[in-house]
Design goal:
- The structure is a single chain.
- The chain is α/β, with parallel strands linked by helices.
- The chain has six helices and seven strands, in the order αβββααβαβαββα.
Length: about 160
Amino acid sequence: MSKTRIIMGGLLVLGLAFANAWQYWLKPAPAAPELTMITLSGESINLQALKGKPVLLSFWATSCGLCLAEIDDLIALHKTYQAKGYTTLAIALKYDSLAAIKSMQQSRALPYKLIYDAKGEYAKAFGGVQMTPTHFFISTAGKIVWRNVGPIDREQLSELIKQNL
């Protein structure tokens, strides 16, 4: 093998390693989108106004088995940290029905704020969310520092919340 090929191969490996490091460790966290949402109770919530507080956005659906399975964990986290400034926002995707969401809110006594994304605009603002459950954790600095598709790990999320209180 020629010396030039070895050097080029080494540079390629270093370039790929840097790209990987940038993507997963060095890249700055993206800011949460400027977005105002309306809860089922009619309350207007502006994400920018929540800056300074840790926020979990959970995109879900009443027909999603994994979403329903994690409700107890979401309730527990909300009850544990709400008094310290933590907020949970559960956003039902547009293919859900308002009646089903309200029924779920009552039957499960959901203590956190529920939002119905009837037009799909909130999901679009977060990169076109289509799968449920999908979660975004927004730090006190207003940055998206964690994204998860699938059920949450309660202990992992609890640690993330504690780090941001």
